[in-house]
Each structure stands twice: as C-alpha cells, then as structure tokens.
Write a structure and sequence with these properties.
Elements: H1 3-11, E1 21-27, E2 33-37, E3 41-42, H2 53-63, E4 67-69, H3 87-91, E5 97-105, E6 110-119, E7 124-134, H4 138-154, E8 163-171, E9 177-185, E10 192-197, E11 201-206, E12 212-219, E13 222-229, E14 235-239, E15 245-250, E16 256-261, E17 268-273, E18 279-281, E19 289-294, E20 300-305, E21 312-317, E22 324-325, E23 333-338, E24 344-351, E25 354-361, E26 367-369, E27 377-381, E28 387-394, E29 397-404, E30 410-415, E31 421-426, H5 431-436
Parallel strand pairs: 2-4, 2-5, 3-5
Antiparallel strand pairs: 1-30, 5-6, 6-7, 8-9, 8-31, 9-10, 11-12, 12-13, 13-14, 15-16, 16-17, 17-18, 19-20, 20-21, 21-22, 23-24, 24-25, 25-26, 27-28, 28-29, 29-30
Helix pairs in contact: 2-4
Amino acid sequence: MNKILVLVVGLLWHFQAIAALTIEITEGVEGALPIAVVPFSWEGTGAAPGQDIAAIVSSDLSRSGRFKTLPASDMLARPHSDAEVEYRDWKVLGMENLVVGRIQPNGSAGYLVRFQLFDVFKGALLTGYSIPATAGNLRATAHRIADIVYETLTGEKGAFSTRIAYVESIPDADGKKRVVLQVADADGYGPQTILNSPDPIMSPAWSPDGLRLAYVSFVRGKPGIYVQEVFTGKRQQVAAYPGINGAPAWSPDGRQLALTLSKDGNPEIYVLNLTSKGLRRLTEHYAIDTEPSWSPDGRTIVFTSDRGGKPQIYRVPASGGRVERVTFEGSYNARASYSPDGKSLTLVTRQGADFRIATLQLGNGRLQVLSDGVLDESPSFAPNGDMIIYATRTGGRHELAAVSVDGRVRQRLTLQGGGDVREPVWSPFTKSNRRNQ
C-alpha cells in the first residue's frame, strides 16, 4: 500500500469527541529557571475580568520546560508594582525572576493590563509594558506577556501566541464518522472547527500570513486541494486533477503551492501559482515523489521519494533543476520540513520497527532522534524553532506530542474525554505576533 493510501486509511480511524487539548509536561529541562508570576490585581469596581492573566502566563512558561514556576499558595507576598516588591521575600524562596501586574478599567469595554519583570538577585527591572485589552482577548494578552517574558529571559522569541491546526474525527448520532479540521491556541485552548466533513481531511498547511489553511479534502471519494480562510470560512478548490491531489505546501511568499499530483500517471512534485493557476512540474521519475516542503528562502523544495529503493529525502531547486539526495542514514526517512532558520529539517525516521521524529542538520548531516514512540508522524516546527509538534500512538490511541529540538523537553497533548487526533501543524508568526516581540 503506498504512503498516500496509508494516510487516507489512517484518517478513517474512530475519534470519540471534539474537545480541547490538555498539555502535560512529561520531561523538562533539569535546572529550569525559577520564576514567580504573582496573581494580577484588579483595580476596578465590580466583578474582576473572567481570565486569570497570571495563571495563563505561569502555565505558558511552565509548559516550555525552561521555567519552574512558583505556586501562588507558596508566595510570601503578592506585590502588584515595583514599589511593592521586597526582593528578600523572593530570594528566600529561591526565585531568580519575578512577574507582577495589575488590571485596570480602560474605557467602557476595555482593560489596561500592566506588568513588570524583575531580576530578583540583581534587584533590577528587566522590562514592563502596559497593554490595552478587551474581554475577548485577555487570553491573547496573557500569551503576549508570556512571549515577552520568554524572549527577555532566553533571548529567543516565544511562540505562546501562535496556534496549531490538527485533524480529528467524531461519530454522528447515527454512528457515521465525520472528520473535522480544528484550530486551537498553542496551549490547546479554544478549539474552533474550520471544516466539518463526512469525508477525509488530510495534510493541513498554514499560509505564511497565518490567515489561510491549505488541505486535502475528499468529495465523493475524490481528493482535491482547497485553500480556506481561517476567520471567514471562505474556501476555494485549487487542484482537482485526475488521480492523486495531495500534500500541499506553501511557498514563503504565499503565492504558490507545491503539491503532489499523479495526473500524468505517476506521483510527482508540481508547483501551482495561486494567482495565474499556472502549473509547473518539478520532478520526473518512475518512483513516487511526494510530501514537498519549501526552504524559508524559497529557493529549494525537499520531498520524499523512493527512487533509491527506500523512502528518503531529496531536494530540488524551486525553479527546477537537478535532484539531490539529502538523507543517507537509515532505511526510511520521510515527511521532512525546514526549521524556521533553514539550517535543519525535521522528519520521520525508522528505528528498527519503530517510526520516530528526528532532526537533520543540513550543515554536517547529523541525524538526531528526538522521540521514543512506536508510530510517531507528521512533525512540524514551532515558528521560533524551539519545539516540534507531532502525532504519536499511545496505548492504541493517536494523540499529539511535542519535543524540544535538543530533546530535553517533552509534552503530551491529550484530547479531553479520549479519542484520537492527528496531523498537527504549527502556525507561523503572524504580523500581530511579530509586533508582540
């Protein structure tokens, strides 16, 4: 059975319910940085806002595996501004950094969220912002604060304000199965159904601006590639050629899709111009070429091919030209995609009878296996390059997991109420994400 058919069959597995994802840290960095996030004060009249900003910030930092957050119940004091901070209270608890904040009314339907980050042992303010917010975006504001704290203390951008897309399937009341494409915050909160279909949905891919998803959907048993706006739901079919229409991948400028088509007999890599609808063929071989992915500079496309006898990763100039083999270690390497800096790939590699997530350093060819599952698949880099989300099978169920690129931080993302979930893909930084940094 070829790889594409295996993916189709896999999507027909039974999922129990649409629900939020819960994230559990299964392994963190030894010696994680101690930090306290004090509950923010509410300085208005009437009921406090419906979101606990400090709890969300603390959860984000804890999930990264790089920080050890102090429970609020263990705090000796609860300051809300620099004037109230007594550093000795936090030194005795072994805290290296401290976040304090307050929420104030800001107009008839708004808030002003103020926060400050301190270095406890230096007794110094590191950063602080006042951020306008509404009731509807308080969680987003909390993620933004976590991003700022993360970048200030690590020197790397935080990805807490980004989102993930994934595929889930549920039974109808009459027992028939429906497949849904979901989008949720990076912490699994607030899942929204982008597409609900009685037919399989495969290979979701975010556009570079984070506003659209490309995916494969089956209508009357035939695969087609669609592009759908996340916020409006408007969608357009962009490829419905005879045979296979699969594995869409966006170019970095968002103007083209690389995809797999078998319209000329054999699965090959093509590039579709989304404006002109012009189609260019990139590969021509009797083997199966599939799963394309663009380099961040738009110059190269990597793909999976069995032209050497076993599935391996190859690359070809995006403008066309000579195909080169990329992977040489192991008998099976597939589903590759570039890191945001273009220096490495994440991919699925076979280790004995198991399929694991790995990274390949393009400079020296070093392959590092990061996961330890039996059937790990569909890896996707976080937009800051620090983590990789992927699908795994545990105890007969499919769920999501994430691992840091150094292998030291591991998370399990479980669908509440049970069930299976597959094909995760992490969103890019959007313009609003970048303004937050």
